[in-house]
Structure formats: structure tokens, C-alpha cells
Amino acid sequence: MRIVLAEDLELTLGGRELLRGVSLELRHGDRLALVGANGAGKTSLLRLLAGELEPTAGRIQRAEGVHLELLPQDPQYGPNDTVESVLKRGFARIQAMEAELAWLEAHLADPGVYQRWEALHERYEAIGGYQQRSRYEAVLKGLRLEGREGEKAAVLSGGEARRLALGALLLSGADALLLDEPTNHLDLGMVNWLVNFLQAYGGAVVVVSHDRQFLDQVTERVAWLRRGSLKLYEGNYTAFRRERALQEEQEAREYAGWLKEKERREGILEQAQRWAHSSAKHARRLHSLEARIERHLQEAAKAPEAEEPAVRMRFPLERPATAERVLEGWELQKTLGERRLFYIPHLLVRRGERIAIIGPNGAGKTTLLRVLLGLLPSDHPAGRVRVGPGVRIGYYDQKLSGFDPELTLFETLYRMLGEKAHAALGAWRFPYEAQFKQVKHLSGGERARLALLSLSLQQASLLVLDEPTNHLDLETVEALEQALLAYPGTLLLVSHDLAFLDRLATRTWHLYGGQLADYPGPPSEYLERRQAEGVPGRPERPVSRVEPQNPRPPRAKGRWHLEREKERLEAEIAELEAQIQAVLAKANTPGLHHSEYARIAQEQSQLEAALEQAYSRWAEVVEGLEGS
């Protein structure tokens, strides 16, 4: 079913032409990645589709009754909004559809009513109408908002407010979810949950993201927005990059061949021109050659389009530190309220190591970095940190602090580089006119590039990067990745971008529940090994274990009882899955009376609710077994 059709869209904002001749169709089940450089117009296109902007020219047709929901960049909540009320806003839309379905079912005898019921029922199923209650519970757990339903939304932190907005969008009952950087402020566990949610969602999904692995997992087509035009590619982001590389190579070959043939023909023509006056025969040959070269010029191969200027990113290090022990800490401990974030008796970072720090939001990754850097003290009286001799530290703070918001970009860089400021800003993709914007008016991507540019000037032998890919477009993430691969110093990296970490890290620290696991390999390898060993929630090889301040009471059930319950639940889950398949097969029976569809859909909903409940209890039992 078609949701929206955009035809020949043009958009001009602030005197700048963002879109020209853009056309796009979205149908239920579509999975689209929208990619392009920062400033290409991706967010503006999403706002056009959602109806928040009107095009300068062209038209957008939305099917009757459909709703598209756009993830806000900076969600705002009223003083009476709670976590629960925000999440349940979409319930009214679902309930209205249920009421209309009920009315239509009561009038199926009327001509044409069944077609309306069938179309509405298809939409209702696609957006998860039958699973709305179970999805509400899943969103609470998946985005870690469970138990906070009564909290005021207006007092949430920026990251929590953004997660709440994402949860509300997922439960909005929308026919198309327009996701603008949905993985910002999500940890790896939340990202994995979101992937599973979107894969099961029946409506359309359009995603703008700098996380390449996330795009590969949730999208099946790519829309490339470049210089105002949109071009579609089949396959995920990796397939798109591969196809683009092949296209560019083919275009370059064809153009080089055309140029070579042009030069050959021009050489022959030049010789013929010298001989043309000697005889009528040579004159006639000259006319023939001129006609041929004219045809060749008219059939010119398309010259390869110049790519957008990439950020020329480098982190030079003229004098690498010679100290083998770059950073070392003893008795590192931090407590948040009554909860101990971590206690680590000893940590050592050696020269040349590239360490990824992963863990759920709130586990203390940024706090650990700040303790290691001496920006926060250890709560342990014997806590101390030692930096190796000659080691110079460069720190990328995800809050992007340290800049005077009143200064312009140029003034900021002039203080660092003098007359070289313009050239440096240009190399980092700041156009000349943008160099006179005040720091406080920079976009998220511009602020991130400014912070990285400043970092590149520090000659640091240890780079500590806390979420460096947030706010960057894919091209800039890849440029940062290449620059860090070439960097000869030591790296400490915090990021939720697993593809980014896997390319760069040779060692993984997993901070989870007060423990720190230390693994001699990249994060994906570590996570796969944990999963293979059947310990999804517990890190291996703990460097330290925090003992709870208040010991838990003895478990109500012993291990033997939990094992038997686990076996029973697995059998129940298998049976429920088989019943759901049987119901789906029944729905495909030829000649089935239309009155049966509603009953079958209701039966499917009840079975899926039971399956969700069984899965939830199974997860609790597995967690109990792991802790016993």
C-alpha cells in the first residue's frame, strides 16, 4: 500500500536551493536509508514528507488517513507530561482505527465496505495495532524507561528526553517512521533492541544515520541526496558503497577512453589541416574528419562528477611518546548516589594500544575516562593515576566544551594558527562565509568538526575520544576512521558505532554493572564470544567485581527448579510459534469468508501476546541461572 508520493520537489531555504526535481515513493514495508553530506538537505526532505515544511515547487500526495511521524532533534515536553503519557500519545490513533474497523465490520453487507475494511485492516496490522500493549512494554524495557512511567518528561536529561521521543515515535501508530539519527544517545544494547523492533515493524521506515552497521541491518534501499538530486539504489548501505565504487570506476574508464580517442582524432585532424591545401582529395578528407570529430564531441562520455570535498583529516604526531606505560591507574572507584559505578584495582594502557570502551548508558564510561584523565578524583582514598613521561593527551569531550561561544570560527582558529586559520577551516569543510559564524550558532556537525580540528593541532600521543561520531555525516565518519587508522599514537574510544570501533580497536573494555571485562580483541569479537558462551548480560574476565552494599536475599528457587522452568518455557515458546504459523497459514486459505479475517487476526494477537509473555519470563529465568 502506498503511503506517500513526492513528485518533482524543489526547496529553497535562505536563498539556497536544497532540492530540485526530487521524487520519492514510500509504501508499507519499505526500508530506506537516506544518505548524503551534512547540509545536503536530508532533514529538510524528512520534514517535507512529514508535512512540517511545504515545498517551493512540486507536490506531495499522502494516502487518505495515513500518518508519518518524524523523530524530533530537540524534543520539548509540557509541565504535565509524564513518561507514560508521552509514550501513550499514539494509542488514541490506534483506538480510532479500532473503532472504525468495528463499525466497518458491522456494515460489511454494504457494497464497498469490505474494501475499506481490508485497506484499514492492512494498515492496522502493519503498524502493530494488535501488539500495541506488548510493544509498549517492550519499548519501556528496550529503552530502559521501565519503572519511570510517572516521572515528569520535562526534567529528563537531554539523552533521556531523546530516548523518550524515540519511544513515543515507535508507539505512535504511524504508517511511516522518519528517523533522523535515532541511535544518538543509545548504547550498543539499545541499538540492538531498536534493530529488532524495526525489523518487525510493518510500516515504512526512512533512516538518516551515521551508524553504518545500523543502516545495513535495518534498510534495504538507499536514497542518495547529492547537489539537490536524489538517486535510489537497491540493497543496504554497504551494497550502495560497493555499487558507487564500481560506477565511479566504470565512469572514469569510459571518460578516459573517450578522451584518448578525442586526442587521437584531433591529431589526425591537425595533420589533415596541414595537407588540405595540397589537393582536392585532401580537402574532402578534411571535411570528413571534421564531421567525424564533431559527432565524437556530441557523443561525449559523461565526465565523472567531482565528489563533495572530503574533510582532509589528520592527527599528526611529530614526536611519538617513548613511554611504554602510557596511562596507569590504581584503586579507581566512583559512586553515583548509593550505586557504585565501578571499582578497578588496577588499569594499564600501553603505547600503541587502541582500546574501545563499551557498556550500557549510565554504566560510567565517560566517568571512567574523566577519572583516568584526572578531571575527576577517585572516590577511593588510595586512588591515583599516572601518565607516562612525555605523553601528551588530547581529549574529545562529547559535550564539546572548551570553546568561547561568542567568538566566530575564524577568531577561534586565529588564536591557534594565526593567518593559517582560513586554510585550516577550508580543509575541514567550512566554507569561507561559514567561518564568520559564532561558535554558539554552529550546528552539531559543525561543532563536532571544530572540536576534531582543534584536537588535530595538539600533537597528542594519546587521543581520548568520547562519542566522536555523533553529529557527523557518513563521509566525515569514514574520513575520521581513515585518519585514526593512520594515527601512530594510542587511542581510547567510547562510541555506540560498532563498525567504527571494530575498524579501530584491538582491545575492548566492557563496563557493566560495576564490573570491567578486559578482552584482547575488537568489540564484535568479544560480544560474539559472550553470546556463544551463553552469558548475554555478564562480562567475562572481570578485572574487578563490585560487591553489593546490601546483599540480596536468598533466591526463591534453586538452580534445579530454574533449569526445569527454562525447559518448560522453551517448549511452550516452540508450541506458541507453531500455533502462530498455523494461524497465518489459515489466513491464506483460498475462498476464506471476509468475516473470518477479524477472528483470525484476534487469535493471532492473543497468541503473540502469550508468546511475548513467555519470552519475557524465559529471559528472567536465564538471568537467574546466570546469577546463581
TrEMBL record:
Give the GO molecular function terms: ATP binding; ATP hydrolysis activity; DNA binding
The keyword ATP-binding is assigned to this record: yes
NCBIfam families recorded? ribo_prot_ABC_F
Q: Which CDD domains match?
A: ABCF_EF-3 (cd03221)
Compositional bias annotation for Basic and acidic residues: 532-544
- Spell out the SMART domains in the cross-references: AAA (SM00382)
| Spans annotated as Disordered | 532-557
Name the record gives this protein? Energy-dependent translational throttle protein EttA
Query: Which parts form a coiled-coil structure per UniProt?
Result: 559-586
Q: Which SUPFAM superfamilies match?
A: P-loop containing nucleoside triphosphate hydrolases
Key words, A-Z: ATP-binding, Coiled coil, Nucleotide-binding
Q: Which residues form the ABC transporter domain?
A: 4-252, 327-539
Indicate whether NAD appears among the record's keywords: no
Superkingdom of source: Bacteria
